[in-house]
Specification:
Elements (H helix, E strand, L loop, with lengths): L2 E9 L4 H12 L4 E4 L8 H12 L4 E4 L6 H10 E8 L8 H4 L1 H21 L4 E7 L23 H20 L3 E6 L2 E2 L8 H11 L2 E4 L6 E2 L2 E2 H12 L5 E6 L5 E2 H12 L4 E4 L15 H7 L7 H18 L1
Parallel strand pairs: 1-2, 1-4, 2-3, 4-5, 5-6, 6-11, 7-10, 8-13
Antiparallel strand pairs: 9-12
Length: 323
């Protein structure tokens, strides 16, 4: 039996960004269908804990399925009246893509193609998908602009995200599908990913273990707080466009050593530091030009790094003490 109530489908609903976006949509009274395969790339119990929070909402349906399984995805679209697609599922991680390349092809390319086909077969009012700042590769011009050429990715992960952007352009052109790609810049905050620097550093410092600092500390990142990312993502969902790309960043490049100093201050402990060379696939600096995003989506990131790190550490202590 088909449920004809209009819904937004959120892929990667148990993931960091997907969880927060799905929760925000549910809190404003929308009906949401979530998909996630809960893969073991990082601690599955964290994904299950996120999921537990949103399963309590009345208008949330969840499917533990893999987006690379076309038959399963088709079944979900057949059963629900999907009005909008918010595609946030992906195999993440620059370094991991060097060790397990075929997982990236399966999830990031085939999975994305499956969703494009669903948007063609079951017409939607909007399709928003997660791209990444990693598509800028080794670009030297800063800040990174969506007008820049991005033909030289330096990791397979980045290459799959650029492939998504090109596939989206093709499907929008051929089938008149409204598609928007969001280039996320180093997202952090409560319920964050354990493979990201803030999480790794916090855990190691509290455990008394050394932290690995790549490029001998000469790294800068445009750290963007999760609530700002959610605001930008939902604004894009609410603004159907023919085929556009936007940067979602804080538009401030923070030195890695500054981040570590803020974490040390919040924890009241000094990190044991292990300085290492730049890793293959990594870039020394990211910095988002968000003028286009401000003008078109009304995007206005509000959370500064000290405030955001404090909120993350508060969550981290509460979550792991509770467990």
């Amino acid at each position: 039996m088909t449920d004809n109530q209009p819904k937004t489908i959120v892929t990667g609903a148990a993931g960091f960004i997907g969880f927060h976006v799905a929760k925000a949509l549910l809190q404003r009274g929308e009906r949401v269908v979530g998909i996630d395969n809960l893969n073991p790339y990082y601690d599955v119990s964290l994904k299950e804990a996120r999921l537990k929070h949103i399963l309590s909402y009345q208008h949330f349906d969840f499917y533990r399925e893999d987006i690379s399984n076309l038959e399963a995805v088709h079944e979900i679209f057949s059963h629900h009246s999907i009005e909008r697609i918010c595609h946030l599922a992906a195999q993440a991680g620059v370094r991991h893509s060097m060790e397990n390349p075929f997982v990236y092809e399966q999830s990031n390319v085939k999975g994305f193609l499956n969703l494009l086909e669903m948007a063609r077969k079951f017409p939607v009012t909007n399709f928003v998908f997660a791209s990444s700042s990693s598509v800028y590769g080794g670009n030297k011009k800063l800040p990174f602009s969506v007008e820049d050429t991005v033909d030289t990715p330096i990791s397979l992960y980045a290459a799959t995200k650029r492939a998504n952007e090109l596939m989206a352009h093709t499907y929008s052109h051929l089938y008149d599908i409204p598609l928007t790609g969001l280039r996320y810049f180093t997202v952090y905050g409560p319920w964050g990913r354990p493979d990201m620097a803030l999480f790794l550093f916090t855990k190691a410092i509290l455990d008394g273990s050394p932290i690995d600092i790549y490029n001998f500390g000469n790294m800068k990142r445009d750290f963007t707080y999760i609530s700002d990312i959610v605001d930008g993502t939902i604004s894009a969902l609410d603004t159907p466009l023919r085929c556009e790309l936007f940067n979602l960043g804080n538009s401030r490049s923070v030195e890695l050593m500054e981040l570590i100093s803020i974490i040390e201050t919040e924890l009241g402990r000094e990190a044991r530091k292990n300085f290492l060379p730049l890793q293959p696939g990594d870039v020394p600096e990211t910095y988002a030009d968000i003028e286009k995003t401000r003008e078109t989506l009304g995007f206005n990131p509000r959370t500064q790094i000290k405030e955001g790190v404090k909120a993350f550490i508060t969550w981290y202590k509460d979550y792991y003490n509770a467990r």
